[in-house]
Amino acid sequence: MPTMSSVMEDPTLERHFKGHKDAVTCADFNPNRKQLASVSVDKSLMIWNLAPKARAFRYVGHQDVVTGVQFSPSGNLVATSSKDRTVRLWTPSMKGESTVFKAHTATVRSVAFSHDGQRLVTASDDKSVKVWSVHRQCFIYSLNQHTNWVRCARFSPDGRLIASCGDDRTVRLWDTSTKHCINCFTDYRESATFVGFNSSGTCIASSGADSTLKIWDLRTNKLIQHYQVHSAGINSFSFHPSNNYLISGSSDSTVKILDLLEGRLIYTLHGHKGAVITVAFSRAGDLFASGGADGQVLMWRTNFDTKSYQDILRQHSRRSSPDPPPHVTDIHPRGPHLHRPQPTAIQISPTVADTQSTDPHVIELGQSVHSTTLLYGRTHTTPTQAAANSHHSNANTHHSNGLPAHREASSRVGGWMGDESTSRARTTVWSQTGDGGGGRGRREEEERGQTHPLEVLSGHPSSLDSTLRHIVQQLDILTQTVSVLEERLTLTEDKLKECLLNQSQLLKDVLSSEERQRTESEETDGSPVHFT
């Protein structure tokens, strides 16, 4: 049976958005598929409308670096977190209104909605994770066992768990009903930078400043995958909604795409100059965004997920396993396995400008002069006020400690200027055709470094060394595949043995029941008759 990767198409750069004046720290797609939000060191929130030639909106209100952004599940609210210690809830419209929470006593590193949209979870340098009510706009409870800055916190899909991670090198799992920490993973040598659940809530992944990405199965509490494919710290990652793929962004300037079913790196994307600080799939998985130290937001079309999410669900529904999909056997290898970079990964270096429209016209909205607000107070600013002070957010480029904003922010991700990988198997360069940026682009291929493995047989120059390396890699892949097949066969045998034992027990129960009934019947029918 052909694997999904054998019929894959390369991801393509769809658009780029320029409007931020400094590094992009976080991005998220609106569930309605019409907007993309991004936030930046420039203290602003940008809402990009995905329709060609549509206007973009800049919302100003935070007084320091904006660190996190997320749309609510309904798409009618946007939450942002900031180094100014507040969280804001914005209505993504022309009004530019926001509700401000004095959330923490130090920098707020991340903000996220629960999947029902009723709660917010925030993570902060004050070492706490806090949960808030969205509609009542009030604090609910705090989780306080981290011993250093907390970088990221997320709800599980069912809302029963919260995962958090931070500079104390731990990933913690919390029960939202008891407020207790029910698990603590301590496998990191450096800060744990980002954490997230897959869409079914059966697994969590976390990334580290040590350039590793790890996936745990929550039903067994075991590490099931361990990737080390980046050459610098990982700042962000995102699961594809099918759970088959994961994208990661790193300070090595690359976006990498992992195939979780096959347990390997499949693409390396070079689109940013400097660190990639944020990556995010759209809710449907057909698009993903990346943002970085270069101030750009790039939007990519996925393409490589050739099977639709509905097909995946239908495939899972036919499984014999009683566990909810995806079953633990869908993510392998089951034992911890270190995945190293594969030099045969396709590397894409987009040089094309925006393929659909020129840079959008930006409308400035939101509060330009910060007024003192009460706890959970609501602040409103008219577009007129915003226009009068549109450049206020960039007037002061230094923080209280005297460091430039971009310098201080760069220390947060452990250095944004990473070296590009020197081992390139194939580079696909996109050159623009047509006028006004409206062309779809023309593919050209440049051979750099190693020859592509498939071209060794067609007379292209290649050293014996690289050919042998390629053969060894292919053998490694075959060994892994055989290992996986053996594991699956063992699992199947175990399940079959369990079924047979159950059936045997059932049969014994039925036979003993029938025997008991027959004995009782004989005792009733065959009892002697006494004559008086």
List the helices and strands and how they pair.
Blueprint: E1 12-18, E2 24-29, E3 35-40, E4 44-49, E5 56-60, E6 66-71, E7 78-82, E8 86-90, E9 98-102, E10 108-113, E11 119-124, E12 129-133, E13 138-143, E14 150-155, E15 161-166, E16 171-175, E17 181-185, E18 192-197, E19 203-208, E20 213-217, E21 222-227, E22 234-239, E23 245-250, E24 255-259, E25 264-269, E26 276-281, E27 287-292, E28 296-301, H1 309-317, E29 338-339, E30 346-350, E31 362-366, E32 378-379, H2 383-388, H3 405-412, E33 426-431, E34 442-446, H4 464-525
Parallel strand pairs: 5-31, 21-29, 25-30, 30-33
Antiparallel strand pairs: 1-28, 2-3, 3-4, 4-5, 6-7, 7-8, 8-9, 9-32, 10-11, 11-12, 12-13, 14-15, 15-16, 16-17, 18-19, 19-20, 20-21, 22-23, 23-24, 24-25, 26-27, 27-28, 33-34
Structure report:
The chain is α+β, with helices and mostly antiparallel strands and 532 residues long. It folds into two domains: 4-350, YVTN repeat-like/Quinoprotein amine dehydrogenase (Methylamine Dehydrogenase, Chain H); 453-519. The chain is built from four helices and 34 strands. It has helices at 309-317, 383-388, 405-412, 464-525; strands at 12-18, 24-29, 35-40, 44-49, 56-60, 66-71, 78-82, 86-90, 98-102, 108-113, 119-124, 129-133, 138-143, 150-155, 161-166, 171-175, 181-185, 192-197, 203-208, 213-217, 222-227, 234-239, 245-250, 255-259, 264-269, 276-281, 287-292, 296-301, 338-339, 346-350, 362-366, 378-379, 426-431, 442-446. The strands form seven sheets. Strands 22-23-24-25-30-33-34 form a seven-stranded mixed beta sheet, with no helix packed on it. Strands 2-3-4-5-31 form a five-stranded mixed beta sheet. Strands 6-7-8-9-32 form a five-stranded antiparallel beta sheet, with no helix packed on it. The N and C termini lie far apart (83 Å).
